[in-house]
Amino acid sequence: MRPAHPLGIGELPEHERPRERLLRLGPGALTASELIAILLRTGTRDEDVMQLAARVLREHDGLAGIARADVATLAHACGIGAARASTIAAAFELARRSRRDAPSLHPVVRGPGDIARLLEGEFAALGHEELHLLVLDTRHRVLSASMLYRGSVNAAPGRVAELFREAVRMHATAIAIAHNHPSGDPAPSRDDVDFTRAVVSAGELLDVNVLDHVVFGHESWISMRERRLGFS
């Protein structure tokens, strides 16, 4: 007979409770399903929390699929809802930020390879396009890193101005930008070239050097400066 209320972690037999296992053995000893179950906290009328966690992983093709999914997509999964989808999305975003911040407090950008290493984790699991910004000091140390936009890159004046707002506020002398192509092909489009040209021109007016615009595909990337696309 199925229970008439959601089954939570605390209602599972003690030896099956992911939270107790984490406290006893550490998070590294837990399976992906157990870690997701801790985030979900409760199950549904038809599934306990461990069964629900396993199904979420299965329906999204594993952790990489969950990382790619936005909150709305996760929320539509049966038994998840907006609140638990937000919890899962927040956990994956923290993981992405920890990878970005791990190398050092102020990693140095010496070329497009450094940009790729800093940001490849941000783009690896995305199923949509994002534009990211690195703000750099005179020694090309990273002062801040942020995601500015979701959606197609274009040369709208407001969008170009937004790229330099943080640099001006921080009295920075350089920026680098990057975006991804969900199709997997990193070859820059005409819009990418036009946007880069507009950004470089704006940087010259503001005396902020645009080091590069790196375009990511699946497991590959292209430096637009090296290709002389948008850079004179």
What report would you give on this structure?
With 232 residues, the protein is of the alpha+beta class. The protein has 2 domains: 91 residues, DNA polymerase, domain 1; 121 residues, 3-Layer(aba) Sandwich (Cytidine Deaminase, domain 2). Helix content is 44%, strand content 15%. Strands 2-1-3-4-5 form a 5-stranded mixed beta sheet, sandwiched between helices. A hairpin with a 5-residue loop joins strand 1 and strand 2. Helix 2 crosses helix 3 and helix 8 packs across helix 9. The longest helix is centred in the middle third of the chain and has 21 residues. It starts with 17 loop residues before the first helix and ends in a 9-residue tail after the last strand. The mean pLDDT is 86.
List keywords for this structure.
232 residues; alpha+beta; five-stranded mixed beta sheet; 44% helix
Task: Explain the layout of strands and helices.
Blueprint: H1 18-25, H2 32-40, H3 49-59, H4 63-68, H5 71-75, H6 81-101, H7 112-123, E1 130-136, E2 142-150, H8 157-169, E3 174-180, H9 190-206, E4 209-216, E5 221-223
Helix pairs in contact: 2-3, 6-7, 8-9
